[in-house]
Amino acid sequence: MANYNEFEEKMKKTLVALGNDFAGLRAGRANPAVLDRLRVDYYGASSKINEVAAISVPEPRMLMIQPWDASLVKEIEKAILASDIGITPSNDGKVIRLNFPQPTEERRKELAKEAKKLGEDSKVAIRNIRRDALDKFKKQEKAHEITEDELKGIETDIQKLTDKYIADVDKMVSEKEKEIMAV
Fold first, then answer.
1. What is the C-alpha separation between 110 and 72, in angstroms, rounded?
2. Residue 173, class by beta-carbon neighbours within 10 Å (0-12 exposed, 13-18 middle, 19+ buried)?
3. Distance CA 80, CA 50 (A)
4. pTM
5. How far apart are CA 28 and CA 107, in angstroms?
């Protein structure tokens, strides 16, 4: 029987990537994941903020960044200002605070739209994985490694796998939209 593991692994990775993208979507609550893409120059090396500072959530709408090296406060502040986070940091020389404002109705709708777009991109990725899998098995059928009947069964199985992961994406998008709109 055909082996679909490599394709299922790719589909799982697509869901993980979508989850990571959703973690970076700011829904009004303080979430340290919004800083994951930001990097600072630390002794000549580009480092993630969470590698050079402690990040905590003292209040639901506040992130507190406490660098292990006080000289990094200005670097981290510059990185935040240069990013697309849209929050102005405040610092007291030792820690940086990010206050997340309550998103407006319009901003929540934009975020929900962004979540839908990320979901659609993930569905396209899953469908591309399906196409690659079908191409692989069609080549095997042309080379007479599998029969036409086996190919039909494989196509059915791959479609079921694709439908399952697309349903998972829809569920993730729906949950993220509820979270965004409930703020």
1. 33
2. buried
3. 13
4. 0.68
5. 10
Question: How many contiguous H segments (helices) and E segments (strands) does the chain have?
Answer: 5, 6
Per-residue pLDDT tens over the stretch 104-118: 788 788 888 988 999
Give CA–CA dist 70/13, Å, rounded: 37
Q: How many angstroms from the chain centroid is the CA of residue 25?
A: 8
| Three-class DSSP category at 137 | helix
Reading the block at residue 85, the tokens are 């986070």
Interatomic CA distance for residues 149 and 26, integer angstroms? 49
Written as one string, the DSSP assignment of 50-72 is HHHEEEEEEETTEEEEEESSGGG
> E strand or H helix at 151, and its extent?
helix 148-181
- CA dihedral sign of residues 56, 58, 61, 62: negative
